[in-house]
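[Target chain]
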Amino acid sequence: MGQRKASKDGDRKVGRRALLIGGTVAAAGSAMLARDELARLWWRVPGVEKPRKDGEVDYADARWVAASDANWRRADRPDDYGIDMVVIHVTQGGFDSAVKAFQNPSHGAASHYIVRKDGHIAQMIRELDVAYHAGNRDYNERSVGIEHAGFVDRPQDFTDEMYEASARLTARICARYGIPVDREHIIGHVEVPGTDHTDPGPHWDWDRYMRLVREARTAPA
């Protein structure tokens, strides 16, 4: 929906980078800056997008399956929209049907990730971009959405493998963006203002899930 083409003006990017590095060196004197710090500064220059590669994932244990570009909006998060929440969803259907829905341009919605009962994770939208998952524009822009394959009235759908895989994913997202691991920042779809959804429902074990996220957040990399 009105997607913006990535700039191919390589000379212009090199010029900006040279200016940025020169300014940084002048300000810092003889101090040496780490390469990753320079990279972060460079991609914060106005008008410059972060690099993208087809099929690239933000979470190493995920597998890429692209959603229809009608179900998300191109962005450059967290530079243009800060990310401070994770929203937990339940698909009200199977994993395959959720993937098909998110690939359907007429569906009008999709989440960044889907977690299957066996712990398999599909990433369908880059975290850079705004997914239409929460039913609230502000929450879409500031959150990462994670779907869980199953039904809200079937507690058996929420398996050990699903909880553990999802918790590791959420912990990594929280670490990446400095999101506090608490229930004010890790919420259910039902808690999004203006929504008419009830997921993840009464059978989602929040105490267990938050404990697993905290454990994963503090575990050695």
Remarks:
- DSSP finds six helices and eight strands in the chain.
- The mean pLDDT is 84.
